[in-house]
């Protein structure tokens, strides 16, 4: 909470300082984009690192980076060295630290609390942040008004110290590694592949991007709203953000009751509608009090939507890839915010602030309508814990972890009457295989013995094959059990694990294909 307080004070100082450095509406709106653009660009890489390496180390590295950059920003502001572009560069670097920090932090929630408590934990995290949002911006406005932006940046630099102390003292559970570490590029690709083959995740991520694009208009243009008022100033700017924070706290406290009465899709529609109403009120009125009132539903809708998106991603993703899935969610959300910050700044400069708010409200209403066709999923219907059934087979060939490519074939004996059910299960099996790292998946039928079916696929290396099988969840295992029930052989389906050879020399004393049959 202390760190969040410092970050919010810094954001107020940066946004207000930009209004003092330039009147360019695009540059002013880009202050918000400079905080969110790094998350769009770097979050996926951070997510891959969080799934591969010790998360505590990543969290400490990110916090130290942000603390150093914040101290340098305070020094530059104190010495009057800042220009619009250098201010954007500093805020971009702080955003880069946040991009490195967010995926391991969000993924660590599943290490801190049981699965059934995860929605409450995400909400509690949101409450903590928005408690600070209710006082941080107002305090930031007072600090900037009384002592200047340099003081706000210094407050942020010191605010990292308590969180650094807590992270140094934290002792996370040891992560067991039973096979070679996944290559970084392969890990990034695995995250992209998993999300791309998960329709529920794609729906959530798409809606989150639309919400971020429209909703960021409030945070991006609020400095201009405060500056345009006759009584405007940094204090009014902080006060309006404080109202946003109060609304967010209200939304977090009401969140359990709302979700108990509505399914996920209707909660999301409520959030889109609430934020759209707030932007329209900001765009169509000039009253300070009405603007303050509009910030309350905006804050509540912000928490309702983003906390639900976050929980849905976490509960729809197995632990081995959860940081990468969260990173892609954040990439979409903050990418939408970065694009929206630029777009609404351009629209405000060309057509006025009111027009920009009305246009943003229209985008949010469109996001509500999209939900009629692409509804958000309900979470909790699948068991994503590891199945734990795979045992690495004993091999007759001396393989290393990086040996490959590996070809796998599984033979089934299926009665004709069971073919439709078998093909339906194989459709699910194909998605599971490809999602967990297989490539070149095929289903073959023997022409001379049509009751024999063979599933085949490739895996790059033996380590990848082991990882592929360890990724299987309990829900995935249900497909395996159903396929075995349809198999009519005297024993389990026959599994062939083979390594390909692409060159042959007369001196080779090793077979062209090493073949191991394991029942």
Structure in words:
69% of the residues lie in helices and 7% in strands. The protein is elongated. It has 16 helices and 5 strands. The protein has 2 domains: 369 residues, MFS general substrate transporter like domains (Growth Hormone, Chain: A); 113 residues, 2-Layer Sandwich (Alpha-Beta Plaits). α3 packs antiparallel against α6 and α8 runs antiparallel to α9. Strands 2-3-1-4-5 form a 5-stranded antiparallel sheet. The protein has 519 residues and is α+β, with helices and mostly antiparallel strands.
CATH level 3 topology of the largest domain: Growth Hormone, Chain: A
Rg, nearest Å: 27 Å
Arrangement of strands in the largest sheet:
2-3-1-4-5
Which structural class matches the secondary elements? alpha+beta
In short:
The chain is 69% helix and 7% strand. The chain has 519 residues and is α+β, with helices and mostly antiparallel strands. Helix 2 runs antiparallel to helix 8, helix 8 packs antiparallel against helix 11 and helix 8 packs parallel to helix 12.
Please give a handful of descriptors for the protein shown.
five-stranded antiparallel sheet; Growth Hormone, Chain: A; alpha+beta; 2 domains; about 525 residues
Write the layout of secondary structure elements.
Elements: H1 2-21, H2 25-52, H3 55-78, H4 84-112, H5 118-147, H6 149-169, H7 184-196, H8 199-228, H9 234-261, H10 264-284, H11 288-315, H12 322-351, H13 353-370, E1 406-413, H14 419-435, E2 439-445, E3 452-459, H15 462-470, H16 474-486, E4 494-499, E5 514-518
Antiparallel strand pairs: 1-3, 1-4, 2-3, 4-5
Helix pairs in contact: 1-2, 1-5, 1-6, 2-4, 2-7, 2-8, 2-12, 3-4, 3-6, 4-12, 5-6, 5-9, 5-11, 8-9, 8-10, 8-11, 8-12, 8-13, 9-11, 10-11, 10-13, 11-12, 12-13, 14-16
């Amino acid at each position: 909470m202390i760190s969040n307080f410092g970050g919010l004070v810094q954001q107020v100082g940066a946004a207000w300082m930009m209004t003092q450095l330039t009147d360019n509406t695009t540059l002013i709106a880009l202050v918000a984009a400079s905080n969110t653009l790094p998350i769009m660009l770097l979050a996926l890489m951070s997510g891959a690192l969080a799934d591969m390496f010790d998360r505590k180390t990543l969290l400490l590295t990110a916090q130290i980076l942000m603390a150093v950059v914040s101290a340098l920003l305070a020094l530059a502001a104190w010495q009057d060295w800042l220009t619009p572009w250098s201010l954007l560069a500093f805020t971009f670097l702080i955003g880069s630290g946040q991009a490195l920090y967010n995926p391991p932090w969000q993924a660590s929630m599943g290490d801190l609390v049981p699965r059934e408590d995860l929605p409450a934990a995400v909400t509690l995290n949101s409450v903590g942040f928005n408690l600070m949002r209710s006082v941080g911006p107002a305090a930031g406005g007072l600090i900037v008004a009384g002592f200047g932006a340099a003081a706000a940046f210094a407050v942020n630099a010191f605010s990292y110290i308590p969180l650094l102390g807590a992270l140094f003292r934290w002792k996370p559970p040891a992560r067991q590694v039973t096979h070679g570490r996944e290559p970084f590029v392969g890990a990034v690709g695995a995250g992209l592949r998993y999300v791309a083959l998960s329709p529920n995740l794609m729906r959530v991520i798409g809606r989150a991007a639309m919400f971020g694009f429209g909703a960021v208009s409030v945070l991006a243009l609020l400095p201009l709203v405060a500056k345009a008022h006759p009584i405007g100033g940094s204090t009014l700017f902080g006060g309006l953000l404080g109202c946003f924070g109060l609304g967010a706290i209200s939304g977090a406290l009401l969140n359990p009751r709302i979700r108990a009465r509505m399914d996920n899709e209707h909660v999301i529609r409520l959030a889109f509608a609430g934020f759209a109403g707030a932007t329209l009120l900001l765009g169509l009125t000039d009253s300070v009090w009405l603007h303050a009132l509009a910030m309350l539903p905006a804050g509540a809708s912000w928490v309702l939507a983003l906390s639900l998106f976050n929980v849905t991603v976490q509960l729809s993703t197995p632990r081995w890839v959860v940081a990468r899935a969260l990173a892609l969610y954040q990439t979409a959300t903050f990418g939408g915010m970065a694009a929206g910050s630029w777009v609404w700044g351009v629209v405000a400069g060309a057509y006025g602030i009111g027009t920009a708010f009305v246009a943003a409200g229209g985008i949010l209403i469109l996001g509500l309508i999209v939900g009629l066709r692409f509804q958000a999923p309900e979470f909790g219907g699948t068991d994503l814990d590891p199945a734990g059934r795979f045992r690495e087979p004993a091999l007759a060939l001396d393989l290393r972890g990086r040996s490959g490519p590996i070809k796998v074939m599984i033979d089934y004996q299926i009665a004709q009457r069971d073919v439709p059910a078998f093909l339906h299960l194989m459709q699910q099996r194909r998605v599971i295989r490809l999602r967990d790292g297989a490539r070149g998946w095929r289903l073959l039928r023997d022409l001379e013995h049509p009751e024999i079916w063979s599933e085949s696929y490739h895996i790059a290396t033996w380590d990848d094959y082991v990882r592929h099988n360890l990724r299987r969840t309990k829900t995935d295992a249900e497909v395996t059990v159903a396929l075995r029930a349809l198999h009519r052989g005297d024993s389990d389906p026959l599994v062939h694990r083979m390594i390909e050879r692409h060159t042959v020399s007369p001196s080779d004393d090793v077979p062209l294909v090493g073949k191991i049959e394991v029942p």
